[in-house]
C-alpha cells in the first residue's frame, strides 16, 4: 500500500505528525438494530459510530450490567499448567483465543528457545496440549488473532533478534500451517492489532527498539502482512494501546515512553492520518505499562498508566474528543508492572488488575465517581513473572486471569466472585 507523508502543526500542545493513506470516511452516527452501517462495517454500541468488525472484536472494556449476587470483593481459584520448556528456556509470553473453532478459550505460549505451544481449552479452566512448533527467533510476544477470516485464531509473534512480525496460520483443528513475515526497519517490541485503514482486515502496529518511529504492517485479509511503513514520533515508544478515543469510528493509538513518562496519543483523522498529541504525566518518574478502558462509565475511553519510581497508577479520563483533561492517581506500596482492565467483581464497572515488582497480584476496583480505594485488594496465590492476561476461560461470564509463573508454568485464576 502506497503512503504519502505529511506534517502539520495543528495542536495547541505542539507540532503534530500526520501520517496518511487511503481510508473511507465514516462520519455518520448509527444505532444498533435501527440505523444500518455501510457494507463491511458494524455499529459500535459504545461510540455510536460505524466501525470495522476487527476493531469491535478487539475493543477495550466498557461498563456493563452487574452480574454478582452478593457484595464480596473479587475472589479467585488457582489452577496450574506446567509447560516443559527445557533448561534455560523461560516462557516469554502467553495469549488466549479460539484456535480450533470449538467455542472454547484456548491458550498459546512461547519460550525464549523459539518453541511455540498451544493448549486446547476444556471450558472448565483446564488446558490440554494441542500443538508444539517453532515460534521463530527468540520470541518476545504472542497474540492469537483471526488473520485470514476463517473464523478461528492464528498465531502472531514478534521476535527479539529478527526485524519482522510473524504470522502463522492455524488450521481448523489448531495445527500450524504456513508462516508469512512482514519486515520492519528495527527490532519489534510490543504490538497491538486492529484495523487501522478500515479495509476490514487486521493490521499490526508495533514499537521498534532503539528507534523513535512506530511501524504499521497492513494485513491483506489472507494471513499476509505488507512491509512496514514507519509512523514518525519524537520519542521511542515501549508500550502502546489502541482505541477509538475521539469516537469517530476509526482506531486511534496511545503510546508510552518508559524513560521520561511521555504519553503520546495519535488520533486517526480519516484517510488513515494520525495527528499526534503529547501529554506529560507531571510528577511521575518512570512508566511501565498502559491499558485502555472506560473506567467511569461516561461512555468515553480512558487510559491507565502504571508508573514506577513513585509507585502509582495514573488514570486519565477521556472526553470523547481525543483529549484527556482530568486524571487521578493511586499510590501503591511497590512498583507496578503489567496492568489489565476488566470487571472482576461483577458490579458492572471496569476494574484494574496488576502485579508488582515482587510478583504479587492486586485488584483496584473502580467506582463511577472516579474513585479508587486507597489500598488495592491483594489476590492470594502464586506470583506472576510475565504476561498477565484476562479471559473468560470457563465461559461462566466472569473475567478470569492467566499469567506466567516463575517463567516455567502458566497459572489460571478462575474468578469465583459471587
Question: Any overview of this molecule?
Answer:
This protein is an all-beta fold and 418 residues long. The N and C termini lie far apart (50 Å). The protein has one helix and 32 strands. A hairpin with a 4-residue loop joins strand 15 (203-209) and strand 16. It is 1% helix and 47% strand. It has one helix at residues 53-57, and strands spanning 4-11, 14-20, 42-44, 49-51, 76-82, 91-97, 106-111, 115-121, 127-134, 139-145, 154-159, 164-170, 176-183, 187-194, 203-209, 214-217, 229-231, 239-243, 252-257, 262-268, 274-280, 286-293, 302-308, 312-317, 326-331, 336-342, 351-356, 361-364, 377-379, 386-391, 400-405, 409-415. The chain is globular. The strands form nine sheets. A four-stranded antiparallel β-sheet has the order 5-32-31-30, with no helix packed on it. The chain has a four-stranded antiparallel β-sheet with strand order 6-7-8-9, with no helix packed on it. A four-stranded antiparallel β-sheet has the order 10-11-12-13, with no helix packed on it.
Amino acid at each position: 500500500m502506497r503512503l504519502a507523508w505529511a506534517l502539520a502543526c495543528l495542536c495547541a500542545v505542539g507540532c503534530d505528525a500526520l501520517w496518511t493513506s487511503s481510508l473511507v470516511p465514516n462520519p455518520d452516527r448509527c444505532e444498533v438494530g435501527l440505523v444500518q452501517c455501510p457494507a463491511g462495517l458494524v455499529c459500535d454500541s459504545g461510540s455510536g459510530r460505524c466501525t470495522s468488525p476487527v476493531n469491535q472484536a478487539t475493543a477495550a472494556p466498557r461498563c456493563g450490567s452487574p452480574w454478582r449476587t452478593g457484595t464480596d470483593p473479587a475472589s479467585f481459584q488457582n489452577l496450574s499448567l506446567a509447560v516443559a520448556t527445557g533448561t534455560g528456556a523461560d516462557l516469554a509470553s502467553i495469549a488466549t483465543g479460539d484456535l480450533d473453532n470449538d467455542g472454547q478459550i484456548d491458550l498459546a505460549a512461547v519460550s525464549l528457545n523459539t518453541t511455540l505451544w498451544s493448549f486446547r481449552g476444556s471450558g472448565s479452566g483446564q488446558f490440554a496440549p494441542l500443538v508444539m512448533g517453532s515460534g521463530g527467533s527468540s520470541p518476545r510476544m504472542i497474540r492469537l488473532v483471526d488473520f485470514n477470516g476463517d473464523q478461528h485464531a492464528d498465531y502472531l509473534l514478534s521476535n527479539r533478534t529478527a526485524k519482522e512480525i510473524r504470522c502463522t496460520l492455524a488450521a481448523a483443528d489448531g495445527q500450524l500451517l504456513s508462516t508469512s513475515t512482514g519486515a520492519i526497519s528495527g527490532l519489534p517490541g510490543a504490538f497491538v492489532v486492529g484495523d487501522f485503514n478500515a479495509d476490514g482486515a487486521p493490521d499490526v502496529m508495533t514499537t521498534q527498539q532503539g528507534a523513535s518511529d512506530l511501524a504499521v504492517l497492513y494485513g491483506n485479509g489472507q494471513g499476509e502482512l505488507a512491509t512496514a511503513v514507519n509512523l514518525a514520533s519524537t520519542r521511542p515508544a515501549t508500550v502502546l494501546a489502541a482505541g477509538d478515543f475521539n469516537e469517530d469510528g476509526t482506531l486511534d493509538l496511545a503510546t508510552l515512553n518508559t524513560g521520561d513518562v511521555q504519553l503520546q496519543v495519535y488520533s486517526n483523522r480519516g484517510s488513515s492520518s494520525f495527528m499526534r498529541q503529547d501529554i506529560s504525566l507531571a510528577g511521575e518518574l518512570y512508566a511501565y505499562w498502559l491499558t485502555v478502558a472506560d473506567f467511569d462509565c461516561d461512555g468515553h475511553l480512558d487510559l491507565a498508566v502504571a508508573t514506577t519510581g513513585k509507585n502509582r497508577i495514573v488514570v486519565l479520563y477521556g472526553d470523547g474528543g481525543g483529549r484527556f483533561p482530568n486524571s487521578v492517581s493511586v499510590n501503591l506500596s511497590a512498583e507496578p508492572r503489567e496492568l489489565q482492565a476488566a470487571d472482576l467483581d461483577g458490579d458492572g464497572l471496569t476494574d484494574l488488575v496488576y502485579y508488582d515488582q515482587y510478583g504479587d497480584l492486586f485488584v483496584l476496583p473502580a467506582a463511577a465517581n472516579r474513585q479508587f480505594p486507597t489500598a488495592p485488594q491483594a489476590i492470594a496465590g502464586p506470583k506472576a513473572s510475565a504476561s498477565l492476561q484476562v479471559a473468560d476461560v470457563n465461559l461462566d461470564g466472569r473475567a478470569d486471569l492467566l499469567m506466567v509463573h516463575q517463567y516455567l508454568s502458566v497459572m489460571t485464576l478462575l474468578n469465583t466472585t459471587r
